[in-house]
Amino acid sequence: MHMLFYVSVILLTGLVMAKVIRLLKLPNVTGYLLGGLLIGPSVLGIIPRDVVGSFSIISEAALAFIAYSIGSELNIEHLKKIGKGVVLITFLEAIGATLCVTLGMIFIFRQPVHLSIVLGAIGSATAPAATLMVVKQYNAKGPLVDTLLPVVAMDDAVCIMIFGIASAIAKILLEGVESVSLASLILSPIFEIIGALALGFFMGFILAWISKKVKGEDELLSVIIAFIFLTTGLSIQFNFSSLLSCMMLGTTLTNILPHNKRVFTVIEHFTPPLLVLFFTISGVELNLSILKSVGLIGIAYVVLRAVGKMLGGYLGAAAAKSPKTVRNYLGFALLPQAGVAIGLSMVAQRILPAPYGDEIRTVILAAVIIYELIGPPLAKFALVKAGEIQSE
Question: Residues in domain Cation/H+ exchanger transmembrane (predicted)?
Answer without folding.
Answer: 11-375
